[in-house]
Amino acid sequence: MSDQKEGILEIATWLQSPLGRYLLDWEQQCLDQAVADLFGFHALQLGWPQLDGLRANRMPQRWLAEEAGRAQLQCSFDELPFESGTLDLVLLPHTLEFAADPHHRLREAARVLRPEGRLLILGLNPASLWGLRQRVAPCLPSRGEFIGYWRLRDWLRLLSFDVPQARFGCYRPPLNREAWLPHWAFMDRRGPTWWPVFGAVYFIEAVKRVHGMRLVGLAKSNGRRRAAPAVALPSRTHRYD
């Protein structure tokens, strides 16, 4: 079995654990809220099929891509099969943490986004109880590398992204037993106020800016937006109905 397939299997197994399900529940709620009011034509999620990140979105073309797996759209996340500036929304759920070159993968996501397109990123926070425990007694998948929140913000800024929204979540300690996690639910209620940047996971919504470019945006006739440019699509795609 290849290292890539072993890594996918390890993540899938961990996501079925109490700690993994706790993480997925928070991330699913966060994404459902974030994508519900994002409009456009083309949306793409890279990896983590256990997370249905685009289910609440209403764009007519929505794809789930995997590098290896059951998804109909299989491609390299470092060489996406889309023309530059053609997607309205790209979702990276922990996609950067498992990249050999996360900065290159981020640049590739930026390339396929149109000006004013949205990039949604989920990442594990090294400055958290989960991150501290991972260094001593690992409780998360062994593959992958934590990318700090502020480090990622710097990368986005260098790629001309603005960050209008960011959130942290999953403040409970990394106790991987079903009976223990509910006793610490109060930390999720108080965490955003008492220790806001120390949640185990962060969510970033970034907007691609093109400096010096004036967007015409909406056509004034009937107040309707013009169609997006044609997208170079693979022969097999996965659509959400």
TrEMBL record:
Start and end residues of each Methyltransferase type domain: 66-121
Gene3D superfamilies: Vaccinia Virus protein VP39
One annotated GO molecular function: S-adenosylmethionine-dependent methyltransferase activity
UniProt entry keywords in alphabetical sequence: Methyltransferase, Transferase
Pfam families: Methyltransf_11
GO biological process: methylation
Protein name: SAM-dependent methyltransferase
Species for this entry: Inhella inkyongensis
